[in-house]
Amino acid sequence: MVTARTLALLVAVGAVAGCSNAAADPGVDQETDRTAELLVQVTSVHEETGMTLLEGPTFAPDGGLLVVDVTAPAGEPKVLRVDTESQEVTPVFTNEDSAYTSAQFSPFDDRLYLTDFVGGRIDSITLEGDDHTTFFSGDVDGAPMQPDDLAFDEAGNMYISDSTGFSDPAWEAGGRVVRIDRETAEATVLADELPAPNGISFTEDFAGLWVGQYAANRVDHYALSEDGTEVENSHAAIHFDGGTSRIDSIAVDAEGNLYQAVHGQPSIFVYSSTGEHLTTVSVPDDAAEGLESATNVAIAPGTTDAFMTVSGDDGGFVYAFDALGEGIRQSNGG
Question: Which of 98, 102, 232, 326 is most buried by its number of CB atoms within 10 A?
Fold first, then answer.
């Protein structure tokens, strides 16, 4: 049963719920905006929560595309599988109380890890949706966490955007970036007092992190120590002129390009690693009116087949487009 408090949180979640590159490639036309094509409708608006919000697209080891429905009520599928060839949609997992905002398979154990924004947990299931366990829960440095997106390093350690304060004024910055050890589940704060971080992705070489600051409409670059346990320096890297829309999740392709998802318009903005706006990927004009957000994107590993999760009053959809670079781990979930 969805309580009034939970419903309010679920609705609020809808607002959060990412140098040698395409700019130097004469074969890439970065001046022309791209129109994505509808692949399949995955969900409809739920009567209980008044909305649907698809997030966390990620390709499983067997090639299937998994997505999460953030606002799915108890009993409705919260993790779904999309066959990109047949367009068949099948439920994978549900439970009573979670609001999953992202998903990614760990390189350490090949399990699917899910961030529960409302519960403050990191859950884990098998590819088939079995053996549901909680990998992490509780306070971090004495304060609860609202985990939004996640990224794995090559060893399987987890990096989380803690979007605490996402509904507060931007000057009341209470968000963090948190690292969780793959074996001990020990949490360490890498950065704090942030304006509601949302999207998080490693650079293509795993040397640093891109972190999208939802309440500031900017993407920061964090240079990490060699072992990934400290931020050695950081700077504001990309500023997004979104008006009433705000940045959501981030994906990175093999060329180092950033795919910046947006809450408030059904579009993905693509930037080079040096901040050049390369192209914008949007849904067709006749579909845009009933769609509010493009929350995330996944590029099939080793290909340029890209899929973005789009939601609004018309329902939750997956749209397809041709990416500027090939898919890697950094463009496959989170």
Answer: 102
